Amino acid sequence: MNGLPSFFKEKVPSNILPYKLENEAQTREFLQKLVDVLLDFIRATNDRNEKILDFHHPEDMQKLLDLKIPDQGVSLQQLIHDCATTLKYQVKTGHPRFFNQLSCGLDLISMAGEWLTATANTNMFTYEIAPVFILMENVVMTHMREIIGNSWRNGDSILAPGGSISNLYAFLAARHKMFPNYKEKGIATIQGQLVMFTSDQSHYSVKSCASVCGLGTDNCVMVPSDECGRMIPRELERLVIERKNKGHIPFFVCSTAGTTVLGAFDPINDIADICERHGMWLHVDAAWGGGLLLSKKYRHPRLSGIERANSVTWNPHKLMGALLQCSTIHFKEDGLLMSCNQMSADYLFMQDKLYDIKFDTGDKVIQCGRHNDIFKLWLQWRAKGDEGFEKHMDKLMELSEYLVRRIKEQSDKFYLIMEPEMVNVSFWYIPARLRNMPHNKHREQELGKMCPILKARMMQAGTLMVGYQPDERRPNFFRNIISSAAVTEKDVDFLLNEMDRLGHDL
Ligand code: ABU
């Protein structure tokens, strides 16, 4: 923090706006210093010679940080220092060698949007206080619905705090559609046991809906999936009939477009046929795979039939690279969201306002406060256009295909678990001592044991991050995700070489 003017050392952040109007220049200087800290982080994030993380165990990290809340406020200088320290120990999720989560990368246009959003500091519940952002939300949501399907143009959508809450909104709307009196009369209005269905590979938030909404998790039926992680439609229909024969009321099916671990796509058309036959709501959880709707090359067959759904979750903060968080839920039918959730709080959603109150979109959701997640997406989409997003999707898929090719070319060192449908590539790393062993359940157990050890080495070296997990069919395996615009073929080569460097002796 050398070079800071003495003004920064004075222990009075109240020297800047809004307290001291005459200190506009010092306010600007403080914020520019902060921007320098942010730019240093962005530079380091994009520098392949920089580590992704500087790992410390929590008890050691606590000693490196001064996190306490003081009795008296600290100086501006200290605040700049605090910001720099915070970023020093933050994992660089935009680093080209960070392959760990579904949301990777740091899109600088979207980030610029987030900076503006923070500065505007408004709530998204009414047009009254967020006029431009509400109109933007309307335009972008309509555009996304048109991409889902022509018949969706006049539907409805909302940005929600994450894919799990988006799925919950779908559940609530589906129940409201079938039991419109539930809102006023509650559980007594449903004469029977409601049942929902999702694949055993779906996101856990779907099961959580059953818990939160009073069905109980036993009434969220987990439909078996095939070897590739796709729901088996005949199993779905068998389980629906089984529950109907018990007198239950099957009402909601969640089809996953891009499962979290394997990146599998359930066959939407087959599932839509079953939903039509049995009068069930079809929700597509495309939180992860939704981005591929933007690619002519990769949309089909993965998302074929999505236009037949009643609702779709689609998270731009995943494949599209919008900054966290940016999650959307779309409905084919307009008006449901409002009639399901509207409470007409009369201090906020007055019916006699100056303007058309249909723009007070906050009354459509069970939240009150709503973060502004639209501006960063709108700005990013303006920058890229549909064409830019299509190229982005195609590049991510092509890089994943490259990774699969390289894994196959080094089959002594890597074992590809399956041909992926999207950017999730599942594989084992094979250390030297296991290379000549025949591949069987015993070797899989041994390879599974290597995953946490190799991951720990990656984190301690700070050079690479790739996730691992077990599933129902196999012990721990690596799941590599390419969803960052920063990744190149050289980074993919680095990924495999670095795993081998760190793990060959295991
Ligand atoms: N279900 C959301 C994200 C999970 C992941 O990044 O791995």
From TrEMBL:
Cited InterPro entries: PyrdxlP-dep_de-COase, PyrdxlP-dep_Trfase, PyrdxlP-dep_Trfase_major, Pyridoxal-P_BS
Record's keyword annotation contains Secreted: no
Matches recorded under PROSITE patterns: DDC_GAD_HDC_YDC
GO cellular component, one term: cytoplasm
Cofactor: pyridoxal 5'-phosphate
GO molecular function: glutamate decarboxylase activity; pyridoxal phosphate binding
One GO-annotated biological process of the protein: gamma-aminobutyric acid biosynthetic process
Pfam families referenced in this protein's UniProt entry, alphabetically: Pyridoxal_deC (PF00282)
CDD domains per the UniProt record, alphabetical: DOPA_deC_like
Keywords linked to the UniProt accession: Decarboxylase, Lyase, Pyridoxal phosphate
Subunit structure, as described in the record: Homodimer.
Family: Belongs to the group II decarboxylase family.
PANTHER family: GLUTAMATE DECARBOXYLASE, GLUTAMATE DECARBOXYLASE-RELATED
Protein name: Glutamate decarboxylase
